Amino acid sequence: MDLAYLWFFIVGVLFVGYFVLDGFDFGVGMSLPFLGKNEVSRRQVINTIGPVWDLNETWVIVAGACLFASFPEWYATLFSGFYLALLLILLALIARGVSFEYRHQRDSLRWKRNFDRMIVIGSALPAFLWGVAVANIVQGVPLDADHEFVGSLLTLLNPYGLLGGLTTLLLFFTHGVYFVALKTDGQVRTDARALAAKSGILTVVVAAVFLVWTVANAAGGGAPLLMLVIACAVVAAVLLIASIVANRRDREGWAFGFGAGTVMFAVLTLWLALFPNVMPSTTDPAFSLTIENASSTDYTLTIMTWAAVIFLPLVLLYQGWTYWVFRKRVTRAHIEKAAETVH
């Protein structure tokens, strides 16, 4: 296999990892107003991702770095054309990270509530904008002969892009609520299961429309590719329904696992729908960025391949170890005991 094509899928895998891991982080943050009915429950919700949120976020850095090195033309067009949307995502991620670290620095209720709002906004905005960005990449954007984006932020806010943003918002929200149910006890766990049952139904409806639209967009890619796109979309739909069923049967671990699988196959559906382009042009198909004309040299890709073979397994092992260490539930009794110790 040509190394450029290999790296197209490696970058896709890295973004899958990011959306699966930081996706439930976003969902946990967005669930705070619904599940955090008092300070103890809010701390329970936040502490479920306290040890892992920053590690999850590093996946986007790795994915962006690999995109820059393997497809510099794609990186340049994407980050220059989508700079405002990506800047908003960056600011939201900064606000969310600051809030996690500073909300507990004072006992003031107003202080904590302000940072809680930043957590919610800093989770919802990236969850929505990532969907908008990826949907527009798949659908195509106006590019000129020099592969430069000639639209604006409003260009990205088209019906398909907005639907993509709403889909990722709801999908990440439900995925995160599954995680809260898996990692907590007491009333928060009960409320999380009930909330996931409601959000899951809405997610199914919105995601179904988006996946059907995506498959329709991929119809021009040829029969074999279209069949792969349809197969991935069907698997994503089945896993989403399975997660709802598992949640209703109080099987939080299975629900979260099926939710992760849903995100994985949804992203894979979009990635295959994009192939062999990396950024189609709606101005003129001849101006499109493809895997071939956007990739680095074979020498660069060879070095990157060896680096990935050596370091990616180490990263996965370290992340797996981290989740194993922090595998226990965040109990209400533990939060209350910690609060008494502080005071």
From TrEMBL:
Principal subcellular localisation of the protein: membrane
Provenance organism: Microbacterium pullorum
Entry keywords, A to Z: Cell membrane, Electron transport, Heme, Iron, Membrane, Metal-binding, Transmembrane, Transmembrane helix, Transport
Transmembrane segments: 6-32, 77-98, 119-140, 160-182, 194-213, 225-246, 253-274, 303-326
NCBIfam families: cydB (TIGR00203)
Source organism superkingdom: Bacteria
Family: Belongs to the cytochrome ubiquinol oxidase subunit 2 family.
A Pfam family hit: Cyt_bd_oxida_II
The keyword Metal-binding is assigned to this record: yes
Protein name: Cytochrome d ubiquinol oxidase subunit II
Its membrane topology: Multi-pass membrane protein
Subcellular location: Cell membrane
Lineage: Bacteria, Bacillati, Actinomycetota, Actinomycetes, Micrococcales
